[in-house]
Amino acid sequence: GKPSDPTQSWYGCWQSFTLTDTWKEYYVDFNLSKTANSMYQWTFDQGIVKNATDIDLTNLNICFLGNKENATVYIDNVSFAKIADIDDEDQKLIIQYDFEETVVPTEWKAVGSELSLTKEHFKKGVQSLCWDAADKATVEIGFSDNLTVSDQNAAFFNIYSMNANNDTIYTEFLDADDEVVKRATILVNFKGWREFSRPYNEYENKANGKVKKVRFTYAAKEGDGQKIFFDNVDFNAVVDSKRQYPDMMVLDAAYLSEDNSRLLKVYAFGADIIPEKATDMEISDFNTLKLGFGRTPTGNTGKIRELLSKVSAMNIVRNSDGTVSGDVMPTPKELTLDYLNELSSDVEILAASISNQQVKTAFNNLVDHIIDQGLLYNFSGLTYSDYTNVKAIPAGFLNAMNAYTEAQKVEIIKAVKWIVEFNLAYAPLEYTLPNQSSDYIYNFLPHLYGCAANYPDQDVAIENMKALTRLLENASEYSPGSNDILKPDGTGFHHNTHYNNYMYAYRSWVEYIGKLKGTCFRINQDAYERIKKAVVSMYIMSTKSEDGKIQLSANSLAGRHP
């Protein structure tokens, strides 16, 4: 707004960047011919005012959002210059593509394949680049100058796969001599959009370097490849501290930041599991158990009209090949628990009224759009002790099982398994033992069994059920020191100490052990004895002798940090 009128609505152009705890130079470029009435409008390119006034061009507001109380920010050596007046060597190299032109950018050159622009799928604007990739096909993008790559910049792009066929896409960053400086491996184990946001130090080669070209190579596992789409490309992007590494990066998990790959690291434990052919006994027991793991959606007819309007406002359309496109859903830095909670509830409510044709159309559009956007893979993970969200978010998606198509069921269960860390069931004991959590056992078991029992492929479902049995058994192992759950004296630990009051966690545990009793999925004898000892110990400590003079308690009941 004008300095003389602080009540006037803000408008201008906007950009964000992340601070560090060391001195760093920031070069922030604005297109001052474009302004908007809000950060939201600027971000989504809505309501753009094309003709900026002199007032618009002469005000700058720097807003610092601190993550600590009483944080101090130091600013020095601020200058403003028109890019046209800056020497070439001092300019930040801009290598960005949004594919909103009428022709494919000339820098993008395909060999053994074809490139085209399309409006069928997009993540920014209304178009993306379609790569009709065959086995061994390549796309190369040359830069106008050498790009210095380090921990201070990143490669960013959105990538779309039509089918999860487990092919591989190699992304190589090459120097002026065509030598590979960095190499990323993308596993095409996904359907829909994913976000590639990766600092240049998170590769096998972590050293700084100079890059002059990027090359994508498609390697088909079998068959002839498929269409791949790119959008919102920036090879010299600001490092995003809230980035989340999705499932497609599993082959490079060892090189990626722990802070941004929590769910990926867990996913990696079971990513390459190939299920065996189920035996007749396993199939029989599974079919019996499956009846007890069915899910039924809870409806709310009073909200149906509101939800139909809400889905309509997403502008979801069907393409000629049956895929969908629509308004962009939140990115990793935008996605919130409240959004997921509401979305999960919406899916469940619509599923409860699926017999209505209008509702069915809206439901299918919404679910396909969630899958298409890869939304749940933008999530950073649930906090085990956040009981409300841990219980509600996965439940809404799982309770809608009656309404999904087989294809939707596969993708939704895969996505829910991602956020509930299902592949902990495949983690080795040496990983799970120091990381035991009674909150996880208490809150997540209904979701884990909901995912396993409802998966359409019977062999996969039975393999998952066997893995969950190992999870129950591993959770019964005695954890070291003050770590969670069971100890050799029969006590249960939480918050670094013996905590009887928290051992309602046994309820879910014992409930699911009971469901499995008498089947080939039951827990082994040793695990049963450890859990039985824990339950008996809790009863002993909560019961006095007949004369009321004796009550037993464990030494570890002495305090929070014994």
From TrEMBL:
Name this protein carries in UniProt: DUF4627 domain-containing protein
Positions of the Lyase N-terminal domain: 97-250
Ranges annotated as spanning the membrane: none
InterPro entries assigned: Chondroitin_ABC_lyase, Chondroitin_lyas, Galactose-bd-like_sf, Lyase_catalyt, Lyase_N
Highest taxon in the source lineage: Bacteria
Biological process terms in GO annotation: glycosaminoglycan catabolic process
Upper lineage: Bacteria, Pseudomonadati, Bacteroidota, Bacteroidia, Bacteroidales
Domain Lyase catalytic as annotated: residue spans: 355-562
